[in-house]
Automatic annotation (TrEMBL):
This is Cobalamin biosynthesis protein CobD. Pathway: Cofactor biosynthesis; adenosylcobalamin biosynthesis. InterPro entries: Cobalamin_biosynth_CobD/CbiB. The gene is cobD. GO terms for molecular function: ABC-type vitamin B12 transporter activity; threonine-phosphate decarboxylase activity. It is a multi-pass membrane protein. The chain crosses the membrane at residues 61-80, 86-104, 308-327.
Length: 328
């Protein structure tokens, strides 16, 4: 696929997904591409991840599972491109609608906004119930500030791997590139954990996900810094300073970049020690502001997020126009 086509598809996909999201009726009727990918991952896990095998054998099985997943996902997406590209503008529009299902701007905003609403209308219990839908940590361990920080951290991290990363690979590789990324990211979220069952089998998925998220996490941080420059009360200098100082100290090679940028922009401290299930994780703080976040800070983060999404759309659209000019 020509770069001009893939960037055009990206611009249209971002606009369509922001406007309409993924209709609930469609989800209940046929599911979602991520749920389809998830079923394949569950099947591969059930068939290939045998507990009787050695650690090395299970790691090799995990590599095989990832290759099968990527091959199956890539072939379906590539077939759709071959089918639709010859249709010209109509084909690009249809590919954009398919591609938009792999981006989550609207749903991320709705889920994080629900946490602020939960805190305001239902108090701490309402906030805990809402934040439990988007984070893996134990909600019972969170006070109001912890709930608010968790929501903002989830917003920052998922802006990177739920929006910027699939957009990045869509712009470079069309629907096939975005689908391959989404398959990798879904595999990491399902089997890329250091548990007794998945430490070996999920190793390949986790390491490959780290690799493919590297460029998007850095781009996300730059988008947040740029968005902060457009918001009164946000600090682009603070965002850049936090990224430079703190991002590399996060336990994830990628999550620290958007989290540090968001923390510095809003004058907050994010990440830090937290509890997953019954396990306390001693992570470094991102940012050097106040830790006592609240629902108003969630609103501030969402405003910054909306601006960063607009900047991403502008970048995609400008790049598409530039490539069309060069081609002509």
């Amino acid at each position: 696929m020509a770069l001009s086509d893939s960037l055009t598809i990206l611009s249209l996909a971002l606009a369509a997904e922001a406007a309409f999201g993924y209709p609930h009726r469609l989800y209940t009727g046929i599911g979602h591409p991520v749920t389809w990918i998830g079923r394949l991952i569950k099947g591969l896990d059930r068939i290939l991840n045998r507990e009787a095998r050695s650690f090395g054998e299970r790691r090799a099985a995990g590599i095989l599972a990832l290759l099968i997943l990527l091959a199956a996902t890539g072939l379906v997406a590539w077939a759709l491109e071959l089918l639709l590209l010859p249709l010209g503008i109509l084909g690009l529009v249809l590919l954009a609608l398919f591609s938009g299902t792999l981006i989550a701007q609207r749903s991320l905003h709705e889920h994080v906004a629900a946490v602020a609403k939960g805190l305001r209308e239902g108090g701490l219990d309402g906030g805990r119930s809402a934040v439990a839908m988007i984070v893996g940590r134990n909600p019972r361990s969170l006070d109001e500030a912890g709930v608010s920080r968790a929501a903002i951290e989830s917003l920052a991290e998922n802006f990177s791997d739920g929006i910027v990363a699939p957009a990045f690979w869509l712009g470079l590789g069309g629907l096939t590139g975005a689908a391959l990324y989404k398959a990798t990211n879904t595999a990491d979220s399902m089997i890329g954990h250091r548990t007794s069952r998945h430490e070996a089998f999920g190793w390949a998925a986790a390491r490959f996900d780290d690799l493919v998220n590297l460029p998007a996490s850095r781009l996300t941080a730059l988008l947040v810094v740029a968005a902060a420059a457009l918001h009164r009360g946000a600090s682009p200098r603070g965002a850049w300073r936090a990224v430079w100082r703190d991002a590399s100290h996060h336990r994830s090679p990628n999550a620290g970049w958007p989290e540090a940028a968001m923390a510095g922009a809003l004058g907050l401290r994010l990440a830090g020690p937290r509890v997953y299930g019954d396990v306390r994780v001693e992570d470094r703080w991102m940012g050097d502001g106040r830790a006592e976040a609240n629902a108003d800070d969630i609103d501030r983060a969402l405003a910054l997020y909306r601006t960063a999404c607009l900047l991403l759309f502008a970048l995609a659209t400008g790049s598409a126009l530039l490539t069309w000019i060069i081609v002509r």
